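Our collaborator T.R. sent over the components below with a one-line note: 'Predict the complex.' Nothing else. No constraints on interfaces, no templates requested, no preferences about which chain binds where. So this is a plain run: every listed entity goes in together, and whatever single assembly comes back becomes the starting point for the next discussion.
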Amino acid sequence: MSNINDNNKKKTPSLLSRWFKRAFFGPHRELSFMEEEALQSPLRTMADNFFARKLSVFGLVTFLLIFLFVMLGPIFVPIDLSYQDNTQMNVAPGMNMMSVPREIQGSLVKIAPGKTFGLGLDKNGKTHLWGYTRITDTINLARVPQEVLDARIKDIAVGYDHAVAIDESGKFHIWGNTRLGQDRLTTEMSNAMRRGDNLNIVQIEAGNQFSAAVSEDGHLYLWGNSNLNDIKMKSQYQDHVAKVAININTYLVLTKDGAVAYPGFQENVYSRIPEGLDKGVVDIAATSNTNAALKEDGSLVFWGNITKGENQVPEHLGKIISIHGGRNHYTALTDQQEVLSWGSNTFGESSVPDFPQNATIENIYTGSYQNYALTSQGDVITWGLKGYVLGTDHLGRDILTRIISGGRVTMTVGAVSVIIAVFIGIIMGGLSGYFGGWVDIVIMRIVEVVGGLPFLPFALILSAIIGTRITVEQRMYLIMVVLGLLSWPSLARLVRAQILAQREMEYVTAAQALGVREGAIVFKHIIPNVISVIIVSATLSFATSMLTESTLSYLGFGISPPTPTWGNMLTGSNNSVVIQQYWWRWVFPALIFSICTICINLIGDGLRDAIDPKSNER
Amino acid sequence: MGKYVLKRLVYIIIVFLVLSLLMYMLYNLIPTDPARAELEPMRPSLKPDEYQELYLKLRADLGLDDPMLVRYARWIGFAPEKDGKLNGLFQGNFGYSNLYKKDVRLVIADPMAITVFMNIFATILALGITIPLGIKTAVKKHSLLDKSVQVFSIVGYSIPIFIVSLVFIYLFAVLLPIFPVMGTKTPGSTFTGLRAFTDRLYYLALPLIVMTFASLGGMTRYVRAAMIDALSMDYVRTARAKGVREKAVIYSHAWRNALLPVVTVVIGWFLSIFSGSVVIENTFSINGMGKLYIDGLNNNDYELVLAMQMFYTIISLVGILLTDLSYGLVDPRVRVNK
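Returned assembly:
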């Protein structure tokens, strides 16, 4: 009978909190009403009170989820601190980079894969654009000129920030970023355009601020930004060109008699063509930093700055008949309809999917981190970079990866510094509160001095003195330790006040009468009685530590890039262009960080109310 | 009481001296060479041995080779300079700013004016909102208003101030372009009087809103807790039993007693009006104390930063003392001299 009454009096805990209780504290033992409450330890009461508060439990669950997310996340999405890619800067969240519109899938004849977008050409000579087409905050490739929409387009190409199209009359159309001469045709080309001549272009390619076109009679036309790119041509190669391939800022050609040539004037790693490529070459391709040539017998030769396994051709059965280059990977097709991709695989651009059994691959288009295979049925099969869930930052780094790794850093810094602070705070506060007298006076003065030391110049000067001698990681530990060493005073004050109150209690007198050593009285008898207050304070100062760390990192005095933290991810976001145009760069880190600190404070608040008997009245 | 204050003052002086020594040593750990910096412009016109001679002479004149403690004593004003005069912190010489090529006292004047201006407004705004809100939520505790304010205030003090700034810039400068984002006055304007005042207020509106918002959460909870404690007292029940009007019970009986803990916090607040918020001033490009501090740190202008640091230290130490004393002053029941 009494049990029923008691159950009615207590609010029935929700399913979630019951589950939590069972998970962490074991199942409830049935109590007879005589021993009810009397057997509950203070910590147990605290836990019960805590789990009765929905908001706090919500905070705990959310915090644990975020904690697991950032602690386990780096195992699945490891971060490469040195990675940055200027072609992937400020990309908005989205997974549509390879979403070829369904209605044009049957009629596509060519696809030009751009850095974060794709340009397709259909049978009717119409262009179609998909993916993330914004180049800068003012230039958008999606603003296709009306003349392109009106004309019947014959061939297309896209570079890093511009697109080129030729219509049936041989007229060039260039749009996108044209500020660096991307649309400045050479004199002979513009003269031909003005006369209305058709140059009979058979291939066009576009790269980083420059473009190339090959005519039927082997003439190579090059135009664009010549300051950055080696786009002049030695005259002996002119009018013999069969194919052109473009890497980051040079180009190479395949001549009509099957030789590979570097017609530019620069001496560089690309101009040193390996031996044996003066005849019998059937195809050429280039990634950003390497060049490749395919010989008649299906063998491949690579040169350039090979750093990402661009020369590791996978096992294959048939003979390679064509090769295509992306940003850091190659894709090739063999005569037995095998598709091979190799090189870097950061975004899965080298993971070729399984093709349908009956599919005959008609053509492969590779560029940037995307691959498109066009089958004879008109289907488009894609693999590679689909997009970024949370977008990218100003250096082209994935924000999701950085949030996960940054969260780990921020939480580690917060936790380690709180542990240091709690440790010192308990010892100093314990000594000061229990012994009193001159010990108290001295320790309280130390507390005042340390409390008066400002963190900012401390961290700055320390890093100025030893900053150059230590690695980024050591610097992170330095920040943790300094943060911990400077944040114990408030905790010491709290412990001291608690112990002052406990010191006069009877159990302490009893322990003294039994002859327990004074150190043992403080740390074995008194501290366990005030530990709940310390736990609450530590929880709340965990949030404060995270806030301090992120504020410092935001100001540029804490943990410095490339190591991400939730604070330094927001550095440089305080201008209206970023706030408005690149909102994903600050919204996501700010959101997860705010949720995290709110949850910690909810937990701390819940704990504080749980140990405070007066809180039930409030 | 007098003895207590005296004892605390002695402690303050000790703590200040230890802190200043620590800070001085810290800043002197940085390998800088003022003598070389001063001679650098003349270097091309001098022969190497001439330069070396001048350099050594300057080092001796500036006392750079003396022991650290001697230099510290000179800087703080306990030991005479080379010319035999005491000219340190205690004599009112705050040092010379290398960054601005002016005395630190002159450098600090303008930023201080802006910071104090902002802080006074923010404090008044924050108190004007939090005190009524705290009373209201305490009186109607567990109401919908109370619960939402509780949640809101946790959110308010959990979110770092730079995120609040970003959100407010987005809301009030980008989405609804009401306020300017940067600066302290209309560029190129030479307003005077009331016009200058309103112009400045308009430019500082957004940072002021952010500052006020950031301080709402903590203060509301504090007022609420104090008020709940006061409302649970026996004299409140007595007053109600006597049939005193509810308004009079709340404002005259309970609030007056709840005021005591609040006042001490407010005193602490008013003392902190001299220190600018580093984050807000940097985010909104306001030339206040916080920005000056960061600029000084970034440009190795250590005399400036050190002087500011000492100023803040004194204020915070005095602030702690005043807060402790004010407990006794506003509440005669509390005895401080123990």
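Summary for T.R.: Chain A has a mean pLDDT of 83.
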